[in-house]
């Protein structure tokens, strides 16, 4: 498993009143990591070395 970029305790805080499956953090981490990678690719395509909100 890769390092998590999401915080499990914050997931539970934001899921207000819901149970969180044990593997949810890993799945969410995969989605977030993918978003970050796509943002990096977009910034590079625009000749920038800084990812910005518009890259999402």
Task: Describe this structure as you would to a colleague.
The structure is a single chain. The chain has 56 residues and is an all-alpha fold. It has one domain (8-55). 52% of the residues lie in helices and 0% in strands. The protein is built from two helices and no strands. It has helices spanning 8-14, 24-45. The longest helix has 22 residues, at 24-45. The chain is elongated. 0% of the residues are buried. The mean pLDDT is 94.
Could you give the topology of this structure?
Elements (H helix, E strand, L loop, with lengths): L7 H7 L9 H22 L11
General shape: elongated
Overall number of structural domains: 1
Order of helices and strands: HH
Note the beta-strand portion: under 5%
Q: What is the end-to-end distance?
A: 24 Å
What do the pLDDT scores average to? 94
- Helix-and-strand structural type: mainly alpha
Helical fraction equals 40-55%
Low-confidence stretches: none
Number of helices: 2
Main sheet characteristics: none
Number of strands: 0
Radius of gyration: 14 Å
């Amino acid at each position: 498993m890769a390092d998590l970029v999401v915080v499990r305790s914050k997931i539970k805080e934001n899921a207000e009143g819901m149970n969180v499956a044990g593997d949810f953090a890993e799945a969410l981490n995969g989605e977030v990591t993918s978003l970050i990678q796509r943002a990096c690719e977009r910034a590079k395509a625009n000749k920038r070395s800084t990812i910005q909100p518009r890259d999402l």
